[in-house]
Amino acid sequence: MAAHTIISYALLAAYISAVGATDYTVGDSNGWTISLNYMAWSTKYNFTVGDALLFNYVKGQHNVYDVTQDTFRSCNATNGTLKIYNSGLDTVNLTTAKEYWFICNFRDHCTAGGMKFAINVSELAALPPGDVTSPPPPHLHPPPPPSAAVRQGINWSYCAILLVILWCVSFH
Ligand SMILES: [Cu+2]
């Protein structure tokens, strides 16, 4: 197989791993707690379908309500609650491209404690044109077997150096 084909696959694989699903811990190292600005936290990231939010808190001291926009605004979860999480370590899979609203429904944590935020989850981005060399037609070359680097978890920079050496040997 030509070296440039191998490089194409390596770039494609690297790109896929770069855009892969991400788990975001809400509040980062602070977790889900009062007196943090979660609206500000939520603007730090771009969330896409397949990502997940991890809510980390002491069970019984907080909870997580996935709510409608109206309930998010009012902090009144009498209705407009889509889902409730209260394990203390909750994973919320972002499965749909839409706006999500989350509050804590413990006492005044939503109204006064800052425990509310909204995120806009977008579809997975398409491959940008020109960013990755087109792979060859599938029937001309069989797909490469999983490389040793993938199976053994050797890091990508090591793999890239090997490919550059291979490329140099092939063309020079
Ligand atoms: Cu709370």
Automatic annotation (TrEMBL):
It is found in: Membrane. It holds the Pfam family Cu_bind_like. The chain crosses the membrane at residues 153-171. SUPFAM superfamilies: Cupredoxins. GO terms for molecular function: electron transfer activity; metal ion binding. Its main location: membrane. It comes from the Eukaryota. It is a single-pass type I membrane protein. The keyword Glycoprotein applies. GO terms for biological process: response to symbiotic fungus. Keywords: Copper, Disulfide bond, Electron transport, Glycoprotein, Membrane, Metal-binding, Signal, Transmembrane, Transmembrane helix, Transport. GO terms for cellular component: plasma membrane. Residues 22-123 form the Phytocyanin domain. Residues 1-21 form the signal peptide. This is Mavicyanin-like protein.
